[in-house]
Amino acid sequence: MIKNLAIIVFCGFISSCVSGNDKGIAIDQLNLSKDSVLTEEHKDIEISVIGVGDIMMGTNYPNTSYLPPNKGNDIFAAVEHILKNATVTFGNLEGVLLNEGGTAKQCKNPDLCYAFRMPESYVDHLVKAGFDMVSIANNHTGDFGPLGRRRTVEVLNASGISYAGILEYPKTIVEKDGIKFGMAAFAPNFGTVSIHDYENAAKLVRELKEESDIVIVSFHGGAEGATNQNVKCKTEMFYGENRGNVCQFAREVIDAGADIVFGHGPHVTRSVDIYNNRFIIYSLGNFCTYGRFNIKGENGIAPIVKVFVNQQGEFIRAEVTPIIQIERGVPVIDEQNRAIKTIQRLLKEDFPGSKLQISDEGVITTKD
Fold first, then answer.
1. pLDDT per position as a tens digit, 338-367
2. CATH of the structural domain 46-366, one choice from 3.40.50.2000, 3.60.21.10, 3.40.430.10, 3.90.1150.10
């Protein structure tokens, strides 16, 4: 792990001892000992993590009319170059990967019932776009019962994309560029790791902190829609369901050792904040939600957030690339910067005393 590494070679005797780029220094190329410490020269390396919100690339249920053209091969084309430009890239997989079958969920209110079943081959679109890890802790992981969950895990395993968030798989570790990234995911839904159980959440985070260098926590929580865009810092209810106290949850997991907290679930962008020099975004919104989602107004804009941290996980800065979904749910860069403007507004409204500031260009820094 990088916090225990030391550079034991002299750069003067080799042509290049580090690889510096937007994906961070390639520590694994240095052949360093795990039992030593980084030198002064390399203690300030930057590690980048990209996070995006809900991903549902089209569903073959109830019929194939909800699938994108060209088998979805172009769905990330406009943003792929951005998604690949980080050490690791994260998203929330909102639905199952299953070609057919499974038992579609039944809801008390059919008008509020949506079941998402993405073709298994669509995992290739995630791989091609550069995703390293996904959360499967949300209200659509169980859309097609045990078969849907099981097949989703099998497909992700075969693809090489890591995942976390259901009871059987609460956490995961991804190693990139010699850096170990731990990820745990939480939600208020059946079969997922509970957002309400702070003690268990803290335990999982502490375990990841021992096993990895940077700990990422994902949560699916908070009430939905533009009328619930503000972070309330209290328990949020939505159609009778307890969607958690997202402020308390974020701070509990940071106290336990989390370095970055990515929220999703409200289907709109929410504010950012910083706590103990760790970055939080309370909702990443709808990133790619094809065919069956409301993508009008605030529901159709979202940030791609690239967070830079040091090797201790401390926040350095973040960069927001605003996207808007066009047609039936294809993400493209938003030239009007609406997601940036939304975060600027919400930061002032929800956390007026925050140490964070965001420029018109989408650069998030701490105030001097």
1. 999 999 999 999 999 999 999 999 999 999
2. 3.60.21.10
